[in-house]
Amino acid sequence: LIKTLHNLNECHLGLLTGNIAQGARIKLQVIKLFDYCPLGGCCDDAIRRSDLSYVAISRAQKYHDIEIDKNDTWIIGDSVYDIRCAHANNLHSLAVCTGLTPRSALEKEKPEFIVDTFEDTGQIVDIIFNGK
User: Fold this and answer.
1) Distance (Å, rounded) from C-alpha 125 to C-alpha 70?
2) What global pTM score does this model have?
3) What is the DSSP letter of 30?
4) What does the alpha-carbon distance between residue 128 and residue 94 come to, in Å, rounded to a whole number?
5) Which of 41, 44, 64, 123 is most buried by its number of CB atoms within 10 A?
6) Gap between the Cα atoms of 89 and 82, Å rounded
7) Dmax of the chain from CA atoms?
8) What is 44-89 written as a DSSP string?
9) How do beta strands 92-96 and 113-115 pair?
């Protein structure tokens, strides 16, 4: 999925995480994903997780020299904090049930979409670009 999204010109990936930047870098480098998410926001960028989206969007706009429309911005994650971040910033939310958070807890937060896995790449791309 990350490779597919990375190869789409209209898609710019970033990472929002509760980890410190160095910890996130180490984790992503181990699984060879760091090059796909060179931007984002980490817990050492803002006290509140919900503020990380502003950091990430600002960095992405500067890095890509483009204006990013919040209506086209998605927070995708496996925790209630990811969904809350999206809601707090009026961004789209896609929850995935691959982490430690039970599906029922994710559903309580009312993400726009929820999937069990990222295996169906076409489904995820359709959600992100067509809202279905």
Assistant:
1) 17
2) 0.91
3) H
4) 8
5) 41
6) 11
7) 40
8) TT-SSGGGHHHHHHHHHHHHHTS---GGG-EEEESSHHHHHHHHHT
9) parallel
**What digits encode the pLDDT tens for the residues 45-72?**
998 888 999 999 999 999 999 999 999 9
pLDDT of residue 28: 86
Q: Which two tokens stand for residue 97?
A: 């049930």
Q: How far apart are alpha carbons 67 and 62 in whole angstroms?
A: 9
What is the four-CA torsion angle of 44, 30, 129, 89, rounded to 10 degrees?
Answer: -10
- Position 102 scores a pLDDT of 98
Dihedral sign of CA atoms 37, 27, 117, 114 in order: negative
In this structure, are residues 124 and 94 in contact, taking their beta carbons and an 8 Å threshold? yes
- Tell me 100's DSSP state: S
Distances (CA, A) of 121 to 23, 62, 63, 72, 118: 27, 28, 26, 18, 6
Direct distance between the N- and C-terminal alpha carbons of the chain, in angstroms, rounded to an integer: 17
Q: Is 116 helix (H, G, I), strand (E, B) or coil?
A: coil
